[in-house]
């Protein structure tokens, strides 16, 4: 029997980080929550394979603490000395932290219920990352086309019979 328990990220993620830092090379598979890494990673569907962060580079998908007990899994889009600029693939705005606040790096993702890892070192992920990061000015239109957020009041109503 499998027992599943959900808890807020501010409780779960400090425990996950503690486990990653306790044993070198240890990995944790974490179900993804939120919509910030859309369109390729989906809330409740996909999972990330994380390892404690050592070296951080532009383009890496990382778990970072952007304010006390507020964590995000976003892509690193810039590093300036100790300052890290992050942006979720589904976001249009940036978030910031220090290098020390980057707690884990994604080794890959289990997407669409698959048991095979899409490695962040693989050609598929690297190609997607290169392209998606360069499409930033057009992202708002692409994201809207892929996942329209039309308020219910503007959607046509079905006629009741």
Q: Can you tell me about this structure?
A:
Helix content is 21%, strand content 30%. It is built from three helices and eight strands, in the order αββββββββαα. Strands 1, 2, 3, 4, 5, 6, 7 and 8 form an eight-stranded antiparallel β-sheet that branches. The model is unreliable at 150-158 (pLDDT under 50).
Helices and strands, with pairings:
Layout: H1 9-22, E1 27-31, E2 47-52, E3 61-67, E4 70-80, E5 83-87, E6 95-98, E7 102-110, E8 118-119, H2 123-134, H3 139-146
Antiparallel strand pairs: 1-2, 2-7, 3-4, 3-7, 4-5, 5-6, 7-8
Q: Could you report the average pLDDT, rounded to the nearest whole number? A: 83
SSE sequence, one letter per element: HEEEEEEEEHH
Spans with pLDDT under 50 lasting ≥5 residues? 150-158
Shape: globular
Main β-sheet, in a few words? 8 strands, antiparallel
How large is the share of residues in beta strands? 25-35%
Number of strands: 8
Q: What's the helical proportion of residues?
A: 10-25%
Which structural class best describes the helix and strand composition? alpha+beta
Distance between the termini: 45 Å
**What is the number of helical segments per DSSP (H or I, 4+ residues)?**
3
Report Rg: 17 Å
Give a nutshell description of this structure:
With 161 residues, this protein is an alpha+beta fold.
């Amino acid at each position: 029997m499998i027992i599943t328990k959900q808890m807020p990220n501010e409780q779960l993620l400090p425990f996950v980080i503690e486990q990653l830092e306790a044993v070198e090379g240890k990995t944790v598979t974490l179900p993804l929550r939120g919509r910030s890494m859309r369109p390729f990673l989906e809330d409740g569907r996909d999972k990330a394979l994380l390892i404690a962060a050592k070296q951080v580079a532009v383009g890496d998908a990382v778990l970072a603490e952007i304010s006390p007990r507020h964590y995000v899994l976003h892509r690193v889009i810039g590093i300036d000395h100790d300052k890290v600029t992050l942006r979720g693939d589904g976001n249009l705005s940036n978030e910031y932290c220090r290098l020390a606040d980057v707690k884990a790096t994604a080794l890959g993702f289990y997407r669409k219920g698959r048991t095979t890892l899409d490695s962040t070192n693989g050609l598929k992920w690297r190609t997607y990352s290169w392209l998606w990061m360069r499409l930033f000015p057009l992202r708002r239109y692409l994201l809207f086309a892929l996942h329209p957020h039309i308020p219910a009041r503007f959607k046509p109503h079905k006629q009741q019979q």
